[in-house]
Structure formats: structure tokens, C-alpha cells
Design goal:
D-Maltodextrin-Binding Protein, domain 2; 12 helices
């Protein structure tokens, strides 16, 4: 049985990361389904998972293939923008996005919200600001002139939120921090803090909380000094021009996962309670932060 996994944006070891960055990688699901039908192309946005989680996502892809009676290809890319561009240029039929990339892709390409995960009873998550366990810093303010790690430029928890906090105070990351870098995964950011490569980082609460159970020795070398307000969780989305019948079939499948024995097992492995139809208003606070940040840059 696959290990229980946190629904969120997770890293891959470096060798996998190099592979994904340079190749169009896809896993074909449910080989026994009718091959004459064009495969559904579903992306996991920058969730290039550790090896033990690949089987969990493959399990979901196989389930979709079996239920819809057509093959499924699972596609991955290194950055959020690459997946957004695939959605906007007709190269995908659906994707699991982090919340920030959803807001950007909605604005840029008009993508549509299909389903939202409920995790630990809520369709939300947070940004955590973390520091090494040995650090004397007790607040975000105390990271002034320190080294800081962001995840991806489109990440809400790993970039937009901490930048919004600074810009709301009339500050800029380039002058507030001594040095910044992008790790392109929350796992990498947590490890960078634990190893002392940086003095602080902004990470996805779901990934951090998950790693407390699966890699406690790593997380024990860090601590949380700040928690953001809640944001809408990572949604399942589709392109605006997707065939309506396919869209309905995918929505019904995700919303009904908790009503099926096999579906419930997949949800358990993903760390998700169930999926709900959700509402775009879940992501309103992210748009508010984005307006502040973009407005500050334009001034």
C-alpha cells in the first residue's frame, strides 16, 4: 500500500528534478483501457513528488482512467508557470494546481475551478515562516538582514504572502533580507533551513505538518515563528474550452471519491478528506495580496 501523503506541492530528489526540468515526462495510466481513445492529460503542478508518492498519484490516475474508460497521462513540470502555460495553450485537460498558480492562470488564461480538497476538515491551508531550531529569531521582523528562501515566484505560501507582509509595511525583499533564493519546492526550503543554508523560509503548512509525521528529525531542526491567515487549498482545474461532457465527468468523479471504497482509499493516501465544488471566493484574499504587491512594484 502507498504511504499516506500530503496533498500539496512537494519536492523530488535532484535527479528527478533534472529529468522533469528538461523532458516531457508522462506516466500512462490503466494500460488495459481502450487505447483508441485519446488520453486525458492531467498535470501535477510542480508537485514533483518523492519516489514513494509517485504511486499515490498513479493510483489516482488509474482510477480516473478506469472510471472514464480512457487512458490518462500524468504530466509534470519543474515550475508552476510551465504548467499554467500548458493549461492555457491546449496541452492539458486538467491539472492539480497550488492556489497561487490557480489565481495567476485564472487571470491569464481563464481556467475554471473544478474541485477543491477538504483537508483536516477545511478547504484551506497557511503559510508558515520557519527558522532553524537554534535561531534566536522569534518573529518575521527579526529576519531583517538574514538569508531567506522562497519556493516559486507564483507560490502563495512560499512567496506571495511574505512579500505581501513586507510591502504592506513599505519594505522590499531585496533590501529587507541580506540574500534571497528560490528552492522550487517546500521540501527543499525546509531542508535549507534545517541545514542552515538560509536563516528562514516561507513554506506550505500542509507539507510542513506532513513532514512532522514522516520526517520528524528534519522538521525538529526547524520551528515555526509565524502563521498566515488561511488561504484556499490547492484546487483541481480545467481549461476554459474543455469539452463540457469531459468537464462534468471529471467533476462528478472528484466530488464522488468519498462515496466509493476505492476512492476513499485514494483520498486516505492523499491526505484528503473529500473534494467539494468550492467557490472562487476561497482565493479572494490571494488576489488582494497580489494587487498590493503588484501595486507596490508599479509605484
Amino acid at each position: 500500500m502507498a504511504r499516506r501523503f500530503a496533498w500539496g506541492c512537494v519536492a523530488v530528489p535532484l535527479t528527478w528534478g533534472l529529468l522533469m526540468a528538461g523532458a516531457d515526462v508522462a506516466w500512462s495510466a490503466a494500460a488495459d483501457v481502450t487505447k483508441e481513445r485519446a488520453p486525458l492529460r492531467i498535470a501535477i503542478a510542480a508537485m514533483i513528488s518523492p519516489e514513494e508518492t509517485i504511486n499515490v498519484y498513479q493510483e489516482l490516475m488509474d482510477y480516473i482512467a478506469a472510471r472514464l474508460g480512457r487512458p490518462v497521462e500524468m504530466k509534470q513540470r519543474r515550475t508552476y508557470q510551465e504548467v499554467n502555460d500548458m493549461l492555457g495553450t491546449g496541452k492539458l485537460d486538467a491539472a492539480i494546481l497550488c492556489s497561487g498558480p490557480y489565481v495567476y492562470a485564472k487571470r491569464q488564461y481563464g481556467i475554471e475551478l473544478l474541485a477543491v480538497p477538504v483537508i483536516n476538515g477545511s478547504p484551506t491551508y497557511r503559510s508558515y515562516i520557519i527558522v532553524p531550531q537554534s535561531s534566536t529569531a522569534a518573529s518575521f521582523e527579526e529576519l531583517h538582514r538574514r538569508r531567506f528562501a522562497f519556493t516559486d515566484p507564483l507560490s502563495t505560501s512560499g512567496y506571495l504572502y511574505p512579500v505581501y507582509v513586507l510591502m504592506s509595511q513599505g519594505r522590499q525583499p531585496a533590501t529587507f533580507f541580506a540574500k534571497t533564493l528560490f528552492t522550487y519546492s517546500h521540501d527543499n526550503s525546509i531542508e535549507a533551513v534545517a541545514e542552515g543554508v538560509v536563516d528562514g523560509a516561507a513554506v506550505d503548512s500542509l507539507i510542513y505538518d506532513y513532514l512532522q509525521g514522516t520526517n520528524p528529525s528534519l522538521v525538529a531542526r526547524t520551528r515555526v515563528i509565524h502563521r498566515s491567515p488561511p488561504f484556499g487549498a490547492q484546487p483541481v482545474v480545467v481549461p476554459k474550452n474543455l469539452d463540457q461532457a469531459i468537464k462534468r465527468a471529471l467533476r462528478d468523479l472528484f466530488l464522488g471519491l468519498d462515496q466509493d471504497l476505492g476512492g476513499r482509499e485514494i483520498l486516505k493516501n492523499l491526505g484528503v478528506d473529500r473534494f467539494i465544488q468550492g467557490d472562487d471566493s476561497l482565493y479572494s484574499s490571494i488576489r488582494t495580496m497580489l494587487r498590493v504587491v503588484e501595486g507596490s512594484r508599479n509605484n
